[in-house]
Amino acid sequence: MHSRLVVAGRALAIGVLCSALLAGCSASDDPSATPSTPAPESSSAPEAPSSAAGEPKEFSLMVTGDVLLHPALLEQAQSAAQAEGGNGEDYDFSPLLEGLKPYVHDSDAALCNLETPIGTPPYSGYPRFTVPEQILSDLKSIGYDGCTTATNHTVDAGTGGVKRTLDALENQGLFATGSYRSKDEAQQPPILEIDGVNFGVISSTFSLNGLPEATDWQVDTGVDAKRLIQRGKAAKVDGAEIVVAAIHDGTEYSTKPTFQQRQLGRELAESGVFDFIYMHHTHSVLPIEKHDGTWIVYGLGNSVAKHATKTILNREGISVKATFARHNEADDWKVSKLQWVPHQLSESPVVWCQVFEVSSCLPQGDAKASLARTKDTVNAYGAFKDGLSEWKLD
């Protein structure tokens, strides 16, 4: 894990920020209870490169698509745990995630999108998911720093599921934003501090699949550009130096954003508030575009999933690394480089397999076809000529 993780809390007075874990409260029967503030994790990691003034010059963020644990993946994780001596009730998702690990370690921060709530046995699949807490410790073990939690499945298990999910993320020391256990927690700025950089994450989902949220603050909902821009500006006031938008929106199994989705991305880019914009939900890869100087990733596809619907699109995805840079303390952070790596999920067992280079986890023909297909989609709006580059490890 990137152990320099700190989350910034609500300012106690103008200009004063206190450091606290965003998800820093234990669950309470009263959803309006004020969360407690645990101490941040200690750090033994080496310091990042910094300027003469002690400020870092570069900061990189990895973002990945939906972590969507269908029942077939739970069965696979149970089998993996049993092979290691588990008792039949244990889960091991590390083989599923192993391919992601070197890319996570090649970035300063890594965020997933946790599609479904944490539950208790027996776990459930579509249409109302619950999944084991073990997925979070396995994500942490390969280096993830946190997850966004605003999705169309956030309230699949009601308020109890929201609390259980955030408790589990907190127990793992992982950053979370998008759903909340109390009004006070919802009002805290969604700021992640890593390597001395205050990084704001503005998340929202287009829908909760028709299920009601308990209160209007429980989940970040709505894809209204004006509201998202207001939230981005508020994060900057609260100390965010870099602000990104993480939006759950789009049409499933598509290869192009909807008109409204592209309009939203461009409006957020034109606002000047967001330094980077990315989206998930479609379970398929969508194009990447540089608009008005700001990169927009319209669809990351799945990170891990095993849909019953048979289409190659839901087995493909991309991971993206945005490197932010500034020349001196007075400069704003800007994306200096955007890199991408495509993957395909193998059939059985399901594992994450990059397709830039030949590997043992996919037939060569499948990998080549996936790469060609994904390249065409990603480059539909001219991303390659605008500077999008391949993310290949040394």
Automatic annotation (TrEMBL):
UniProt-listed InterPro entries: Capsule_synth_CapA, CW_Biosynth-Accessory, Metallo-depent_PP-like
Domain Capsule synthesis protein CapA, first and last residues per copy: 60-307
Annotated Gene3D superfamilies: 3.60.21.10
Keyword Protein transport carried by entry: no
Segments of skewed composition (Low complexity): 29-53
Region (Disordered): 29-54
PROSITE patterns: PROKAR_LIPOPROTEIN
CDD domains for the chain: MPP_CapA
Entry annotated with the keyword Phosphoprotein: no
Family the UniProt entry places it in: Belongs to the CapA family.
Protein name: CapA family protein
Organism this protein belongs to: Glutamicibacter mishrai
